[in-house]
Amino acid sequence: SPASIQAHQGAWHVCLKEHGEPMNTNKVPTKPFPDQKPGTSGLRKKVKTFQQPHYVENFVQAIFDAAGDPRGKELIVGGDGRFFNDRVVQTVIRMAAANGFAWLIVGRDGLLSTPAASCIIRKRRAFGGVILSASHNPGGSEGDFGIKFNASNGGPAPESLTDAISRRSSEIDTYSIVDAPDVDLSRLGETDLGGTVVEVVDPVSDYAALMEELFDFDRIAGLFASGFRMRFDAMNAITGPYARVILEERLGAEAGTVTNGEPLPDFGGRHPDPNPVHARDLVELMQRDESFGLAAASDGDGDRNMIVAPGMFVSPSDSLAVLTANAHLVPAYSGGLAGVARSMPTSRAVDRVADSLGIDCYETPTGWKFFGNLLDAGRITLCGEESAGTGSTHVREKDGLWAVLFWLNVIATRGMPADEIVRQHWKRFGRHHYARHDYEGLDQDVANDLMQDLRDRLPDLPGRSFGPLTVESCDDFAYHDPVDDTVSRHQGVRVFFREGARAIFRLSGTGTSGATLRLYLERFDPSPADDAAGGGEPLVSVARAAGEISELAARTGRGSPTTIT
Ligand code: G6P
Ligand code: ZN
């Protein structure tokens, strides 16, 4: 049984620790850096920041110090292959050995997608994992880098732990590292590093096996065998190797289905963020070439997804709703859903589906970590975010390729084109028009003041009209976690209008320069026309009202958003 194997491995670890080759462990004196507070998803900074002497070491030591006694435990290590991944992975290995970990599982070449890391942490019942990634942020020597710690449930460290890491980073005065040459990560197998076993594993196999358990691979293979074509853009990031093995080798999609499949340190100079702006060619392909039934893309570390149906980009909010409504068609979810959750700015499309299924729908703050407790407690089965993240109980991260396989399974089972599935969904549940306006690179003080003044003005807003819209209610979103009773405040300002519209204001927690204000616009249409036109028109008045309420243009000096997705 897994438990006895685990116990056996535990004993073996101890034994190796006692008899392994002695190795020099250095205790290196260091001084704290003032800026090592993890954000929405770990510590993310410019590569140049991480390249400062001791910067990486300090943060990694802070993680180990805060996460609990590492001695005798197992740690998963890997990253999305961006610039500096290869160096930092070796540092983490040497430091993990010095800190007394018994066993390290490292993806070949230091690579692991975020969902695969989560999968392996859970499968091996490891202590946790160190994931090297700045997700969808650009890579290369001028780009971003990131380090995050995932706990033993496979999910991002909860806020209590990231706070502890941040506190530890501000007082750190030494770190431990063994004196050893680089471990050869190009070959599978085990190396002894002073009594710590470093096991290099194939980054894909455990993950692919999990996908095969969840989905009806025979049916999806049948879909491809019948001539179904798709395009998966791996954006020269981590998902290339995963998508090639799963889509092309196992499921028989035609060669060339996966494009930009080679992970590159600079992601080929592109921005590995799968949205209609950065993956515009996919949207255009699906407008122009009727031979494709689906196009999809994932981000730097493989946890985000973008779905494009024939002639239509499927918003992540709609995707979550459609998958929820069709989950009974997928083997892993055919027994029904415990509940669903969405982040607060995500549209309320899934709420309607949950309502019709008679299951709970939770509204959490932005950040995947907030789903962790609900998943662990068995309160939800599926969850998703407007920021192109969708996932389920199968791991504790959002999962890009999983979402694509889910869509393929639904398309194959219903025998219906993806765009038709979406249209029928809108017919049945109504349509939530949706868009996100990002104002990037704002002055931090300007952005903070805008949010603060907005909060101060909330009590006066209800009943006031802005163009054709009248404010019904508004608040500064706070989340009370029903599992551990923690309360997270100031998670974004919500303004609800009587006309079925909603505007949300929030500052991004993932940027690396200046402040980014996100304005999320939504408007419900109970009986939508039968066309796929984007959320533009119905949202114009919502955007105007939001602009007026927040004095956006006057305060930021911006006439229009930097990006609309
Ligand atoms: C990361 C997290 C997501 C979150 C997103 C929001 O991708 O993993 O859970 O939705 O950041 O980022 P923001 O920039 O809006 O804070
Ligand atoms: Zn990501």
From TrEMBL:
Task: Indicate the enzyme's highest-level EC class.
Answer: isomerase
- Gene Ontology MF terms in the entry: magnesium ion binding; phosphoglucomutase activity
This one is known as phosphoglucomutase (alpha-D-glucose-1,6-bisphosphate-dependent)
Name the segments for region: Disordered.
23-43, 257-276
Q: Does the keyword Phosphoprotein apply?
A: yes
Write down the species: Lutibaculum baratangense AMV1
Q: What is the lineage of its organism?
A: Bacteria, Pseudomonadati, Pseudomonadota, Alphaproteobacteria, Hyphomicrobiales
Gene3D superfamilies, A to Z: Alpha-D-Glucose-1,6-Bisphosphate, subunit A, domain 3, Alpha-D-phosphohexomutase, C-terminal domain
EC no.?
5.4.2.2
